[in-house]
Design brief:
- It is a single chain.
- The protein is α/β, with parallel strands linked by helices.
- The chain is built from 13 helices and 15 strands.
- The strands form two sheets. The chain has a nine-stranded mixed β-sheet. It has a six-stranded parallel β-sheet with strand order 3-2-1-4-5-6.
- Strand 2, helix 3 and strand 3 form a beta-alpha-beta unit.
- The longest helix has 20 residues.
- The protein has two domains: about 140 residues, NAD(P)-binding Rossmann-like Domain (Rossmann fold, 3-Layer(aba) Sandwich), CATH 3.40.50.720; about 190 residues, 2-Layer Sandwich (Dihydrodipicolinate Reductase, domain 2).
- Pfam families: GFO_IDH_MocA (PF01408), GFO_IDH_MocA_C3 (PF22725).
- One of its GO terms (molecular function) is nucleotide binding.
- Keywords: Signal.
């Protein structure tokens, strides 16, 4: 009996020590409209939200009542939060310009960071973030909603399997009616339509999706050239920024057309891949169509109806925790990766410069 108790004790001790430690997560900012993803996240053992940084006390109190977190964990600065709760990682949910300052505060202390897309407001800020990440050996991930789409994963797999032949053209459309029309909060709208705090309007808010996906699809290729035009079709709602853009990327053998807009009549995040033998249509998070050419204009079509991605890829915070704990190693130039998002920011910066100056930007 005594031996059995000792054995059980050893087994339980081993079980405790083999469990992944709960990640202490800080949240930097509450003004981003997507912050509900972490505040309302179902209880899991992988992450424990230990601190929040937000200077807008009224907003913090409002969200405290809505989501049930204590105001005792709300701090007025990154330094105060870090000193008080010593987080392992921080998720950024404020304006995009703050991303660099958040990494500056976290990196020297070995605190990993995940930001909402895009990585930064400028290419120079993105490079500085990359340098800090390398110097202090921290992970910096960028979260995109399209990272959770099983249809995009299926499209990528079909492309790599050669189902549509060699890739020639990609069309990616992202956006909605516009932040004011869809009713985002005043706190979100204030910086989302500020060219300094957001880097631009629709060209950055939704242009980053296409640049990120194209960089992933091509396994880290930089385009040869970037050409962009922007318009302001809702001056009354977006007086300081563009709200419609078209970005053309050329590569040695491919072309991408990105169409980010705050003027779509319906919300959309869809992608079309055209190869030498057929086409893939990633229509939405759950439907994908594969068309294969038959002669001049005929084709076969197969429709795939897909569910959510498997764990941990159905939850960006689970991905973040698993990367930090060493359970997950992401593929090079994956959509979350810093190397992908540096190229994404180079594309966005070039697109902004192209639209501003009315000329094509040659990268190579």
């Amino acid at each position: 009996m005594k031996k059995a108790i000792i054995l059980l004790s050893l087994l339980l001790t081993n079980f405790v020590y083999t469990q992944d430690p709960t990640l202490k997560l800080g949240v930097a900012g509450l003004t981003h409209g997507h912050v509900g993803w972490i505040l309302g996240r179902e209880t899991k053992s992988d992450i424990n939200m230990v601190g929040i940084v937000e200077t807008n006390q009224d907003l913090a109190k409002k969200l405290s009542k809505e989501f049930g977190f204590s105001m005792d964990i709300v701090f007025s600065s990154m330094d105060d939060m870090i000193k008080a709760v010593n987080p392992d990682a921080v998720a950024a949910f404020g304006n995009i310009k703050d991303h660099l300052n958040i990494v500056k505060a976290c990196a020297p202390k070995g605190i990993h960071v995940m930001v909402e897309k895009p990585l930064a407001t400028t290419y120079n800020d993105a490079i500085e973030i990359q340098q800090l990440s390398k110097k202090y050996n921290i992970h910096v991930l960028t979260n995109y909603e399209t990272s959770w789409y099983q249809t995009n994963i299926k499209a990528h797999a079909l492309l790599k399997q050669g189902e549509i032949g060699k890739l020639r053209k990609v069309i990616i459309r992202d956006g909605h009616k516009g932040p004011k029309k869809i009713g985002v909060s005043n706190e979100f709208l204030e910086w989302l339509t500020d060219p300094d705090l957001n880097g631009g309007g629709a060209i950055t808010d939704f242009g980053c999706y296409g640049a990120n996906l194209m960089t992933w699809l091509t396994n880290g290729k930089r385009p040869n050239s970037v050409t962009a035009v922007t318009q302001q079709l809702q001056a009354e709602n977006n007086p300081k920024v563009d709200d419609d853009a078209t970005i053309i990327l050329t590569y040695d053998n491919e072309m991408a057309i990105l169409q980010p807009s705050w003027n779509w009549p319906i919300g959309r995040k869809d992608m079309e891949l055209y190869g030498t033998k057929g086409a893939i249509y990633s229509d939405n998070p759950s439907q994908l169509r594969l068309r294969l050419s038959k002669g001049y204009s005929d084709y076969t079509e197969e429709t795939f109806l897909l569910g959510e991605r498997e764990e941990p890829f159905n939850d960006p915070f689970s991905v973040f925790a698993d990367v930090i704990n060493g359970k997950l190693t992401l593929d090079p130039f994956n959509v979350y990766s810093l190397e992908n998002n540096i190229i994404t920011m180079e594309i966005l910066q070039s697109a902004i410069n192209s639209a501003k100056n009315g000329r094509t930007i040659n990268l190579n």
